[in-house]
Specification:
The structure is a single chain. The protein has 2 domains: about 5-45 and about 105-300, TIM Barrel, CATH 3.20.20.70; about 50-105, 2-Layer Sandwich (Alpha-Beta Plaits), CATH 3.30.70.20. Helix content is about 35%, strand content about 20%. The protein contains 11 helices and 13 strands. The protein has helices at about 60-65, 90-95, 110-120, 120-125, 140-155, 170-175, 190-200, 205-215, 230-245, 260-265, 280-290; strands at about 5-15, 20-25, 50, 70-75, 80, 100-105, 105-110, 130-135, 160-165, 180-185, 215-225, 250-255, 295-300. Strand 4 (about 70-75) and strand 5 (about 80) form a beta hairpin. Helix 3 (about 110-120) packs across helix 5 (about 140-155) and helix 9 (about 230-245) runs parallel beside helix 11 (about 280-290). The chain is globular. The protein starts with a strand and ends with a strand.
């Protein structure tokens, strides 16, 4: 019997999550709570309500539909959600005619996901692409992930895994033989700095990076944040690590504020974090550091 996973997005014709044209499958749930997270709705492992007030007409149908009386309108016709009362029953989503209330996260079987991915096989074959399983953190649903990867392998679709690397070694050893390459996210090499901004240390993550890089084609991806992990000293350490592990490519992903609005839309206070992207001039310096080590590096993909 097929397993069910919680999927929060399937993005077709993606060109930024590995080689070629790809379909990126985003699994919900993540053990990290990165302060800069651009998809905070990916962290909670179950479906949850998301509010987009810009689409709200003020009709009030959601108020009547909510059994917990968690929705109200002010005299100015501004909708308010009592997030402490909301139990994610999604009755309000069904009542909303304008798409201003949505459920983020859908329960899907591994077979259903694999069938969607398979639709674009011709594009994968022509471009050297395939599927990338991302998150959240895909390892958080490792049993579902295993079953999905087995199905995709049977369909002869190239499989990449985008991961934070935060998982037990036993899970790593179960999953890695089922993928063709790994996109390994590195936030910071200093464990205390890593813990301050993600909620977890990086000791196990770095051990798993070494474990993975010894076995399979590996790219490193770094969310690049000015004043946090973009110093020349830190980038030099990244280049030395990449050289040691024979990393195929390092991708720098400049910080953007995409997650700022989303925190409010899911009833969360935005973390106190004042991130900014590095300047164009500094990005050139970063690429020069990688070039000196003969490490292929890109900005933004």
């Amino acid at each position: 019997m097929p397993r069910h996973g919680i999927i929060f997005n399937i993005q077709r014709f993606s060109t930024h999550d590995g080689p070629g044209i790809r379909t990126t499958v985003f699994l919900k749930g993540c053990p990290l709570t990165c302060l800069w997270c651009s998809n905070p709705e990916s962290q909670y492992g179950r479906p949850q309500l998301m509010v987009r007030d810009v689409k709200c007409s003020g009709c009030g149908e959601c108020v009547s539909a909510c059994p917990e009386h968690a929705i109200s309108f002010s005299e100015e016709q501004t909708r308010k959600i009592n997030w402490n009362r909301c139990n994610n029953c999604f009755d309000c989503v069904g009542a909303c005619l304008y798409g201003s209330l949505t459920s983020i996260g859908e329960q899907m079987t591994s077979e259903a996901v694999a069938d969607i991915v398979e639709k674009d096989t011709v594009f994968y074959n022509n471009s050297g692409g395939g599927v990338t399983i991302s998150g959240g953190e895909a390892f958080a649903q490792h049993d579902f992930l295993e079953e999905l990867l087995i199905l995709l392998k049977q369909k002869k679709i190239h499989r990449a895994l985008d991961t934070t690397g935060y998982a037990p070694a036993s899970v790593i050893d179960k999953i890695i033989p089922l993928v063709d390459m790994v996109l390994f996210d590195i936030k910071h090499l200093d464990t205390e700095r890593h813990r301050e901004t993600t909620g977890v240390g990086n000791e196990n993550i770095l051990k798993n990076l070494r474990r993975v890089a010894r076995q399979i084609r590996t790219w490193i991806r770094i969310p690049l944040i000015a004043g946090y992990n973009d110093t020349e000293a830190h980038i030099t350490k990244i280049s030395e690590l990449a050289e040691e592990l024979k990393i195929e490519k390092v991708s720098f992903l400049p910080y953007h504020e995409g997650g700022t609005v989303k925190h409010r839309q899911i009833g969360q206070k935005h973390p106190e974090f004042s991130g900014t992207p590095p300047t164009e001039e500094h990005l050139k310096c970063i690429l020069e550091i990688m070039t000196k080590k003969n490490i292929p590096a890109t900005i933004g993909s």
